[in-house]
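Hey,
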Amino acid sequence: MGVSVAIVGATGAVGQEMIKTLIDRNFPADEIRLLASHRSAGKKVEVRGEELEIQELTHESFEGIRIGLFSAGGSISKEFAPSAVKAGAVVVDNTSAFRMDENTPLVVPEVNPGAIAKHKGIIANPNCSTIQMVLVLKPLYDISRIKRIVVSTYQAVSGAGAKAILEMQEETRALLDGTTYERKIFPHQVAFNALPQIGQKNAFQENGYTDEEMKMVKETVKIFSDPNIRVTATTVRIPVVRGHSESVNVEFENKITVEEARKALAAFPGIVVQDDPKNQIYPLASECVGKYETFVGRLRQDLSCENALNMWIVSDNLLKGAALNAVQIAEKLI
């Protein structure tokens, strides 16, 4: 017997990837219900050779739905997820709405699958940059507990949505043509630039960190269920369409050699080691697009700290960072 699935935010970049991922992974869905705002209602999307009409999202949209995949913004999730749960669905939410709620599991299936069983109707998908980092750190954490993480991210514009991709492309053309461009998404020029701010004007908190940076701090601790892990993050937006990159420095309680780390990472599901710098082999955002795996390379001992390693982590932020992780949670549910 198949499973009825509703996708909230079906017209967005992540929603489209959710549809594709369900199909590519042969998810046993006997119904895929596409939900979006009234502006998109009536449009048609081809799914498994069939034209499906996008329906307007209402509180009555979840009748007969078993799993709801949400990716339409935090305010939408807060308003409509309870209605989905009331109708009998389990919600896998890709927004930040419920991530730090103490009654909502925050799950990366390869890292903390046991947390899924603790759900009370809603399961949260972590932030895209957190997902790829904790996935790589999990097999190393199993060797030696982590004391401290220092992470700097280089995040693609697709993390800010489809309109952000278009803005970067149009701004790039304008700069090359010597014309002016009026941006609407980013606070500063993103083309040929690096912005040490992810989020809008209200992104910065009292402590000087952005919301995105504090997500990585808090979510990492919650996923590992380890309040002793110290995390500091700097998140940066760069003019890449798709694929987040991260420079990660990790201090362990006990020393882990590069060889031990490489062996543990290569054996762990969902991770591909690309670590042959002499031949210019290391993870690249341009090569991760459309791939389910998370890639790690540039493994090396930290010369300033005996028990620390440096590494470079790359993943498709719309897949493992969003749609794929949500579908994997749904697979665990059934």
